[in-house]
């Protein structure tokens, strides 16, 4: 997923077809919530001009993330469509927001692919097949209660008032 600027100049005004499978398993060290990630399929086209190269990419794969509720493994398939622009000279096209400057003489899109995958991780993900024994029922200073427990529970601030009404019923 690397090209030198010289190679890209030779392919100027021609479309470069991209169809590769890359291993991005090292992003598990960057984002600890990723338990596993499959090899990622990258397809697309690169348009080369005299000052820049534009990649139109589709990134597909699947990663394993922990369920937000139970911490069991959840398969999360993703498909990312992105357009990335690399400028050969840093002074060109300063008005564009989403551009990458080429450092040295090599255009490497693998770090951009990894960044896009990291941005795709959802804030919360839930497993659809959760068994009752997998759900935590209590922890430090908390426990799961039902709606019936809430209805029958007396607010501690009003416990004295409940005792007052009990005394009146006895009299």
What does this molecule look like?
This protein is of the alpha+beta class and 171 residues long. It contains four helices and ten strands; from the N terminus they run E-H-E-E-E-E-E-E-E-H-E-E-H-H. Strands 2, 3, 4, 5, 6 and 7 form a six-stranded mixed sheet that branches. A two-stranded antiparallel sheet has the order 1-8. A two-stranded antiparallel sheet has the order 9-10. The model has no long low-confidence stretch (mean pLDDT 83).
Task: Please specify the SSE layout and strand pairing.
Layout: E1 2-4, H1 5-10, E2 15-22, E3 36-37, E4 40-48, E5 52-66, E6 73-87, E7 99-101, E8 106-108, H2 110-120, E9 138-139, E10 142-143, H3 147-152, H4 159-170
Parallel strand pairs: 6-7
Antiparallel strand pairs: 1-8, 2-4, 3-5, 4-5, 5-6, 9-10
Please sum up the structure shown:
This protein is an alpha+beta fold and 171 residues long. It has helices at residues 5-10, 110-120, 147-152, 159-170; strands spanning 2-4, 15-22, 36-37, 40-48, 52-66, 73-87, 99-101, 106-108, 138-139, 142-143.
Number of helices: 4
The secondary structure category is alpha+beta
Tell me what portion of residues adopts beta-strand conformation: 35-45%
Q: Roughly how many Å apart are the termini?
A: 87 Å
**Number of DSSP E strands:** 10
Strand count, sense and barrel status of the largest sheet are: 6 strands, mixed
User: What's the oligomerization state?
Assistant: single chain
As a percent range, the share of helical residues equals: 10-25%
The H/E string reads: EHEEEEEEEHEEHH
Mean pLDDT: 83
Parts with pLDDT < 50 across at least 5 consecutive residues: none
Radius of gyration equals 28 Å
Bulk shape: elongated
């Amino acid at each position: 997923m690397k090209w030198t600027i010289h190679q890209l100049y030779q392919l100027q005004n021609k479309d470069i077809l991209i169809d590769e499978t890359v291993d991005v398993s090292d992003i598990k060290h960057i984002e600890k919530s990723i338990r596993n990630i499959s090899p990622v399929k990258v397809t697309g086209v690169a348009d080369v001009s005299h000052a820049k190269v534009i990649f139109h990419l589709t990134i597909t794969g699947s990663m394993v993330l922990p369920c937000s509720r139970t911490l069991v493994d959840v398969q999360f398939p993703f498909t990312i469509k992105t357009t990335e622009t690399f400028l050969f000279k840093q002074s060109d096209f300063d008005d564009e927001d989403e551009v990458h400057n080429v450092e040295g003489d090599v255009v490497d899109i693998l770090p951009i692919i990894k960044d896009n995958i990291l941005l795709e991780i959802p804030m919360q993900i839930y497993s659809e097949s959760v068994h009752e024994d997998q759900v935590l029922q209590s922890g430090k200073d908390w426990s799961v209660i039902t709606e019936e427990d809430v209805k029958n529970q007396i607010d501690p601030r009003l416990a004295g008032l409940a005792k007052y009404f009990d005394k009146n019923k006895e009299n």
